[in-house]
Amino acid sequence: MRAELGYYLGIDVGGTGTRWVVIDANGDEVTRGRTDGATGLIYDAASLAAFVGAMETVREGSPGPLSYVHLGITGAGFNRHAALDEQVKLAFRIGEGAFSYSNDMVLAWHAAFPNGGGHIVSAGTGSIGLTFKDGERIAVGGRGIMIDDGGSGTWIGLRALDRLYRLIDECGAPKGAEILADKLFAAMGGAEWDATRAFVYGRDRGQIGTLAIAVAEAAHAGDPIAMDMMMRAGQELARLARALVDRAGPAPIGFVGGVMRLHPSIRAEVERALPGYDLQFPTIDAALQAARIARASAQN
């Protein structure tokens, strides 16, 4: 067991934001904070810099000394990676036995079902479904924006842009989708193609995911294509839930993530598509759960 004078740090690393909580040896919360998003996909200089920057901000905000750190990291996959190990050790100046991490979905599952026994569908920057059956992990979706991530923030933003530009191709203007066009172009900094190109191809997945907010604003203002995108997002998330139940059997299904708060039609479509299922829409505190995992890990 580690010295009880230290603190236990939990971090929820997401594409659009990184949240962290510190608790003491008694399990009481000491402090919490939020900083820029990052990802475990540290394969290029920009992604690595974002991860390092976020971790350094967290370290500077921690009261220290840290007895143990646990992270849930979007894009980290389900296995340990040497590059991530090294960056965590460097950022928090800790040794091999003083930290652990998981995919952010595993962390979210523990936060939603601390006693086990449920399925989870998470829709934020990306989307994925996760459950456990007989100790075996079952994941559906979650393959990134280049393949799918159906119903996620990036999916909503990119599919909306696709439909908007098809209208522009066919009509020379966003006929019938003027509200959506105004919201998206404002979010990207201009209506010229150069602005779209720079935003989509020059930003990371977290920034692209923020376009879902613009689409949701257009839906609230009555834009028909934006409304349809909200409903389609709900259908995509319901598909992930059905896949989990088909493979692992009936259980409560928790839907979490920022997408669920974008527009009421997303939840309504999930409920419409899944009659008779045990649906839950919990508010989870993944960073606090990570801190609790850090404390338990240090005491084992």
Map the helices and strands.
Elements: E1 7-13, E2 18-23, E3 29-35, H1 45-61, E4 66-73, H2 82-92, E5 99-103, H3 104-112, E6 119-123, E7 127-133, E8 136-141, H4 153-171, H5 178-188, H6 193-202, H7 205-209, H8 211-220, H9 224-248, E9 253-256, H10 264-273, E10 279-280, H11 286-299
Parallel strand pairs: 1-4, 4-5, 6-9, 9-10
Antiparallel strand pairs: 1-2, 2-3, 6-7, 7-8
Helix pairs in contact: 1-2, 3-11, 4-8, 4-9, 5-8, 8-9, 9-10
Order of SSEs: EEEHEHEHEEEHHHHHHEHEH
Strand order within the widest sheet? 3-2-1-4-5
Query: What number is the mean pLDDT?
Result: 92
The number of helical runs is 11
Helical percent range?
Answer: 40-55%
Number of strands: 10
The percent range for strand residues is 15-25%
Can you tell me about this structure?
With about 300 residues, this protein is of the alpha/beta class. The protein has helices spanning about 45-60, 80-90, 105-110, 155-170, 180-190, 195-200, 205-210, 210-220, 225-250, 265-275, 285-300; strands at about 5-15, 20-25, 30-35, 65-75, 100-105, 120-125, 125-135, 135-140, 255, 280. The strands form 2 sheets. A 5-stranded mixed sheet has the order 3-2-1-4-5. Strands 8-7-6-9-10 form a 5-stranded mixed sheet, with helices on both faces. Helix 2 (about 80-90) links the parallel strand 4 and strand 5 (about 100-105).
